[in-house]
Design a protein that fits this description.
Elements (H helix, E strand, L loop, with lengths): L2 H11 L3 E9 L7 E8 L22 H13 L4 E5 L3 E7 L8 E8 L6 H19 L2
Antiparallel strand pairs: 1-2, 3-4, 4-5
Helix pairs in contact: 1-3, 2-3
Length: about 140
């Protein structure tokens, strides 16, 4: 799955969905074709971004896009916690059983010279959204 697919998954988690598809042919005799997906805009976008209408999502590069997703994850219930620290990002979901700190989901991504804070947070959001989607399938 590439970054576009992962951003589309996040957009669906945020309430976005494809309204219609439109085929196009590239100009200037290249004879290449493609499909544009027209989306219902996901919740929490920072501004009226017209590029989101055609599925150009910036969750992997913009805190303005990613923070509403993190807020939504944290608001799901008391057992779900997404936190950003100085050296790592963590997300946990407690099962709520008899045992203290019994987690249904527990992952962390480290912030390093090779991986920025937004990269770590985005990767963890993707893991959570994939896990969350698997619960309903």
């Amino acid at each position: 799955m590439n970054n576009t697919d992962k951003n589309n998954l996040i957009a669906k988690f945020m309430g976005g969905y494809i309204i219609r598809e439109e085929e196009y042919e590239s100009p200037h005799g290249s004879h290449s074709t493609g499909v544009i997906h027209h989306w219902k805009k996901p919740e929490g976008l920072p501004i009226d971004d017209r590029m989101a209408d055609i599925g150009y999502f910036k969750y992997d590069t913009s805190w303005d896009w990613l923070m509403p997703v993190i807020r939504k994850i944290n608001s799901l219930d008391k057992a779900t916690q997404f936190a950003i620290f100085k050296t790592y990002v963590s997300c946990t979901v407690e099962r709520g059983g008899k045992f203290y700190k019994d987690f249904a989901f527990s992952h962390a991504e480290y912030i390093t010279a090779e991986q920025s804070d937004i990269e770590a947070a985005w990767k963890l959001v993707v893991k959570f959204v994939e896990w969350n989607a698997s619960l309903s399938s």
